[in-house]
Write a structure and sequence with these properties.
The complex is a heterodimer of chains A (118) and B (111).
Chain A lengths: L4 E3 L2 E4 L5 E6 L6 E7 L6 E7 L2 E4 L8 E4 L6 E5 L8 E8 L2 H7 L3 E2 L3 E5 L1
Parallel strand pairs in A: 2-11
Antiparallel strand pairs in A: 1-3, 3-8, 4-5, 4-9, 5-6, 7-8, 9-10, 9-11
Chain B lengths: L4 E3 L2 E5 L4 E6 L6 E7 L5 E8 L4 E4 L2 E6 L4 E6 L8 E7 L8 E2 L3 E6 L1
Parallel strand pairs in B: 2-11
Antiparallel strand pairs in B: 1-3, 3-8, 4-5, 4-9, 6-7, 7-8, 9-10, 9-11
The chains are: A mainly beta (118), B mainly beta (111).
Chain lengths: 118, 111
Amino acid sequence: EAGVVQSPRYKIIEKKQPVAFWCNPISGHNTLYWYLQNLGQGPELLIRYENEEAVDDSQLPKDRFSAERLKGVDSTLKIQPAELGDSAVYLCASSLNWATVANTGELFFGEGSRLTVL
Amino acid sequence: SQQGEEDPQALSIQEGENATMNCSYKTSINNLQWYRQNSGRGLVHLILIRSNEREKHSGRLRVTLDTSKKSSSLLITASRAADTASYFCATDEGYGNKLVFGAGTILRVKS
């Protein structure tokens, strides 16, 4: 079974440029998460989708970040314009639903997209 | 915000030794989970312990939970070089419906 797929793995851009990350969750997983991981830190939730609905985006900096999950499958996270402080790893994860994470810990992560803003 | 605080921040041991990592958290929880992250990779779920459990085992992993002290420990026995990774605890902060991760412990197992 394929895992969570993210692309690109690495991206280097100049500040003020836009950037987009793509995530394909595990087939059948209704819940999709985007996490931000700064160097030496644990992941921090940016947004959680239940199917195509964003149910928790309280930590998403909405002035420059946006996300969408059309048709409740793939998702895209966009930053426009990027700032130096956005350099980090952006992790996508998926689960069957939130209850499975709470009950069994079945939260599956992709390998992440590492962003460097120069 | 980060709920869990891992201790130590970094740990270096010889292959075959045991490794113990600790996690403290701030609010009431339903469960606590441990994840491993190899360098440059995503996180992998290791084990979940519920708030009404005190100890849980999975292979070479042993997790304890003390809700009165709001703390947990992860013990890896007979460590191997392949155990070299970062280890994170995560909780459902305040019975919320999201996982909040700590800053992690970097484990290095020398062969």
